[in-house]
Structure formats: structure tokens, C-alpha cells
Write a structure and sequence with these properties.
Shape: globular
CATH superfamily of one domain: ATP-grasp fold, B domain
Mean pLDDT: 87
Order of helices and strands: EEHEEEEEEEHEHEEEHEEEEHHEEEHH
Number of helices: 8
Structural class: alpha+beta
Number of strands: 20
CATH topology of one domain: D-amino Acid Aminotransferase, Chain A, domain 1
Helix content: 25-40%
Strand content: 15-25%
CATH architecture of one domain: 2-Layer Sandwich
CATH class of one domain: Alpha Beta
Length: 339
């Protein structure tokens, strides 16, 4: 049994069997009248939406903002649900296809850049008992992975001045202790990509830290390796995405150790872990449109939600527009529609 989200007329949820279908036509019809990019999803398509996994007799070791994680000893089963968080609060309304986009786009990048660093994925289709009974529901949104010891920092690469980096630059002219040229505008391209590690916050926002502090947590040699790999992955991803019309403003990587070897873990260059900007609309000097949950954030600002739990139900047009953006990012980067 899963808790399945049904974005209906009022965007509310109800408990149901995972095989039930979700009609997203109402929100999609509204979105069709806007210029949100190309996406060939039919207005009458029915989609399986998973907000939370609940397998009989099986309890996840952890539920994150998006993922349910099952501990299998030396392996983990990581299920990307369709949950969406905004301003550090998980919304009650899931986004159809979001979990599948995150998982399948991650696998695409893991494989494309595997010569830079090995990844932790073992399979997206073969799951050990008793999870094999739920194979049809798990496939496409679930990774069976090697268990590693995650580094206690998030490894962030920035090529543009945005987000917390923009705020830090405005206050000090630096990001994570790295001095930058004066007079830069919001969303300006940096002279070269920079490595800006951050602590992992259990709740709330991560905190940017200087490299020296990261080295104190990891040791100098491992910190140097993490920085080198982070910047190489970023440069390679930028070189791939930009000719396809997407600017990779910044992205967050996570790495783990297994038998002394550094592995790329968690997710890889997704709309949740990265800022993807449409190159054709790039205009430095302010915030940029993006391939992510921008529609949700804009809606929440518009209704003046206080940014404290619980989150409000999301209307169908916001759900449909957000779904379309995730799918569009996948299509542009991978080269075909999400299947």
C-alpha cells in the first residue's frame, strides 16, 4: 500500500491503492494556455503518483523531504517519491512524475560522467526480496545502491552568482571565504567555477563554510579530492548542458566512502539539486526563470503563506506547470521524453 496523491479540483490528497490513476487534466488544460515550454504530456493522461511508501511489514530507515530509504545491510533501497518541499516545508500535494525524473535523470548523469568518479547505483530494475513483489511500482523511481559512509559536507559548485552565494557576496564580497571581483550583479557568470562546501543541516538551510573548515572535517587530502571531483563534474555537466540550451548555475553533489574509495551518491544534477536556467532567457541583473519548483515558490509568495508547517494544498495549475518543468528539463538533457 502507498499513500497516493490525487491532485483534484482543490489539490487535496486521499489515501488510495497505488494502482489507482490520477487525472491531471484540469490543471494541464490551464497550463496549456501559458508559454511554459514544450512538453508532450497528454491532458488526459493518467499518472501513478506516490507521496509516501508503506509496504506491509517494512519500515524505512529514514524519510527525507523527497526520498524513502530502506536499509538492506550493505545496500540501500532509495525510493524517490513525488513529494516536493518549498522553503524547507514538505507540501501536502505531490507532483506527478517528479520522483521518476529525479531518479532517471540521476542515472543518466551517473553513467555519462562515470569516468570522473564511480557511482553507488547497482540497479533501477532488480530489487531483492521482499521488495521484488513491488517491482512494478518501484521501477523507474527507485535505486538499489551500495551503502557508503557519506561525507559530512555537501559539495557545491557555483558558476553563477545566485541564491545564498549572492547574499553572501552582497554582505562580504566573498563566498565561503573566496574573494570575488567587485561590482558583480545577481546571476552574473563568475570568472571561473568555485567550490563552496556546506554543512548538512538536519532541518532548515545548510550553512556555507570555507574550504579550510571542510578540510578540518574531512582531512586535507580527502577535501582536496572532493573539491577536484566536484569542479570536474560541474565543468563537464556545463559543457554538456549549455549547447542544449540549459545553463547550470550551480549544483550540489554528495559523496561517500566505501572501502577507502570515494563514490558519487544520492542524486546527480537534477532540478532539485541544481539551478537549471533556460539559456535563451538568461538576463543577468536579477533572478532567473528555472526548471524546478519556481511555480510553487511563486504561488506560495503570492498567497503570503508564512513559510511554516503545514504547507498549503497546491492548485492544479501550479502542480501541472511544475510537473511540466521537471519533464522538460529531463527531455532537453536526456534527449527524449520521460517514459
Amino acid at each position: 500500500m502507498f499513500f497516493c496523491g490525487y491532485p483534484g479540483q482543490h489539490g487535496r490528497l486521499r489515501q488510495g491503492n497505488v494502482t489507482a490513476n490520477i487525472d491531471i487534466g484540469a490543471g494541464w488544460d490551464k497550463m496549456q494556455n501559458t508559454s511554459q515550454g514544450n512538453c508532450s504530456v497528454s491532458a488526459t493522461s493518467a499518472v501513478k503518483v506516490i507521496r509516501e511508501t508503506n509496504f506491509p511489514g517494512l519500515t524505512p530507515a529514514a524519510r527525507g523531504k523527497v526520498r524513502d530509504i530502506y536499509d538492506l545491510g550493505d545496500r540501500l533501497l532509495i525510493v524517490a517519491t513525488d513529494r516536493l518541499s518549498a522553503f524547507d516545508v514538505v507540501m501536502p500535494t505531490p507532483i506527478p512524475d517528479k520522483g521518476r525524473v529525479l531518479t532517471q535523470l540521476s542515472l543518466f548523469w551517473f553513467n555519462l560522467l562515470r569516468d570522473v568518479i564511480p557511482h553507488h547505483v547497482l540497479s533501477l530494475t532488480e530489487f531483492p526480496a521482499p521488495f521484488d513483489k513491488y517491482k512494478d511500482d518501484l521501477a523507474g523511481r527507485t535505486m538499489l545502491v551500495r551503502k557508503t559512509k557519506p561525507l559530512p559536507i555537501e559539495c557545491v559548485a557555483r558558476g553563477y552568482l545566485s541564491g545564498s552565494g549572492w547574499k553572501e557576496y552582497g554582505a562580504s564580497g566573498k563566498i565561503c571565504g573566496i574573494s570575488l571581483p567587485g561590482g558583480l550583479r545577481e546571476s552574473d557568470r563568475l570568472p571561473e567555477p568555485i567550490f563552496t562546501p556546506a554543512t548538512k543541516a538536519v532541518t532548515g538551510h545548510d550553512e556555507n563554510i570555507p574550504f579550510e573548515q571542510a578540510a578540518g572535517l574531512l582531512g586535507e587530502e580527502l577535501a582536496e579530492q572532493a573539491r577536484s571531483v566536484t569542479l570536474e563534474l560541474y565543468r563537464r555537466a556545463v559543457a554538456y548542458a549549455e549547447p542544449r540550451g540549459i545553463l547550470l548555475a550551480d549544483t550540489k553533489f554528495e559523496f561517500g566512502l566505501l572501502n577507502g574509495q570515494l563514490l558519487w551518491i544520492d542524486e546527480a544534477l537534477t532540478p532539485d539539486s541544481s539551478r537549471f536556467w533556460p539559456a535563451a532567457q538568461y538576463k543577468p541583473g536579477g533572478a532567473q526563470p528555472s526548471f524546478d519548483k519556481q511555480f510553487v515558490r511563486d504561488y506560495l509568495e503570492r498567497i503570503q503563506w508564512p513559510k511554516t508547517p503545514p504547507g498549503p494544498d497546491l492548485p492544479p495549475d501550479v502542480v501541472a506547470a511544475t510537473r511540466a518543468k521537471y519533464r522538460e528539463a529531463y527531455r532537453i538533457l536526456v534527449g527524449h521524453e520521460l517514459e
